[in-house]
TrEMBL record:
Pfam families: HTH_11, WCX, WYL. It comes from Candidatus Galacturonatibacter soehngenii. InterPro entries: CBASS_pafABC_assoc_protein, HTH_11, PafC-like, WCX_dom, WH-like_DNA-bd_sf, WH_DNA-bd_sf, WYL_dom. Residues 131-196 form the WYL domain. Coiled coil: none annotated. Residues 222-294 form the WCX domain. This is YafY family transcriptional regulator. Residues 5-56 form the Helix-turn-helix type domain. It comes from the Bacteria.
């Protein structure tokens, strides 16, 4: 703990040049007396720290002092800091201490150049703690257990060996070896419940390389031809980005390959009266049947 604090003080001084003992005390959660003892320790070990009194005074480090950073070019230093910032703004990783330390080593101001939020408006502290637990399980090769809901809404208990977190499209996935199914699987994080991080270790298979082409339980694809009104343009371009979209003045004709899943009709119903299924005829009939069932509830 003390060594971490000594590093933190050094990096803070390299970054801010002059700070007060009270601000260091507040940031590091120790007494002012402890800060001054740490300063004495650093000075005794050759780090040129000095104190000045009066207005604008405080604890400073000699301007010529820097930690050796010659192994990295200026561009490489910037790339490292920007990469850490990009990872930090996902909301899942607390990398600020690392960014502050490296900016101190490199003697660079860190530009607040990016803001990303993958989490959605409804993210809870539980979601964040689950993410941290999964990250730790991957890093330390610890088994995870959780309840999982498949695309049919069926709940099952899974025990897995976690390998990687993947963000694809608009979803977070856990790639893991499922001990229940004896196979490598993708799990959507928003379908995981009651996550438990065990202390049981497993031996990782270093030859595993997850494909970024995610497949649901069904592998069957269906070709759709849809007529969608222009007021749904924001959804058309967001959700059918890789499809063939034809702009026909007051509506779009969308040709797309979509997995034939049980939720497909419910998904299309979300377009309301703005959507018409042109092809295939079988899906058009199934859609009509679903609409009649909904209508009968209000008759």
């Amino acid at each position: 703990m003390k060594n971490d604090r000594l590093f933190a003080i050094t990096y803070t001084l390299l970054h801010k040049k002059t700070v007060t003992a009270s601000s260091l005390s507040k940031d590091l959660g120790v007494s002012i007396r402890t800060i001054y003892r740490d300063i004495e320790t650093l000075s005794a070990n050759g780090i040129p720290i000095y104190c000045t009194q009066g207005k604008g005074g405080g604890i400073s480090i000699m301007g010529h002092y820097s930690i050796d950073k010659a192994l990295l070019s200026d561009a490489e230093q910037n790339e490292i800091l920007m990469a850490l910032q990009g990872a930090s703004v996902t909301g899942h990783l607390n990398l600020k201490p690392s960014i502050d330390k490296l900016s101190g080593i490199f003697q660079k101001e860190v530009d607040d150049w990016i803001e990303i939020d993958f989490t959605g408006w409804s993210q809870t502290n539980s979601t964040r703690s689950d993410f941290e637990a999964i990250k730790r399980a991957i890093q330390e090769s610890l088994l995870l257990s959780f309840s999982y809901y498949n695309n049919k809404g069926k709940e099952s208990t899974r025990n897995v060996q976690p390998y990687k977190l993947i963000y694809k499209g608009t979803q977070w996935y856990l790639y893991a070896y499922c001990m229940n199914k004896c196979d490598y699987r993708y799990f959507k994080l928003n379908r995981l419940k009651n996550l438990h991080l065990t202390q049981e270790k497993f031996e990782k298979n270093t030859n595993i390389m997850p494909s970024l082409y995610y497949k649901e339980d069904t592998k069957e694809m269906i070709h759709l031809t849809l007529k969608i009104q222009k007021e749904m343009a924001f959804r058309v371009y967001d959700e059918f980005g890789e499809a063939t979209i034809t702009d026909n003045m007051d509506h779009f004709i969308v040709n797309a390959q979509i997995p034939l899943n049980p939720w497909l009709i419910q998904y299309l119903l979300g377009y309301g009266a703005s959507l018409e299924i042109l092809e295939p005829k079988s899906l058009r009939e199934a859609y009509k049947k679903e609409l009649n069932q909904v209508l009968n509830k209000y008759l």
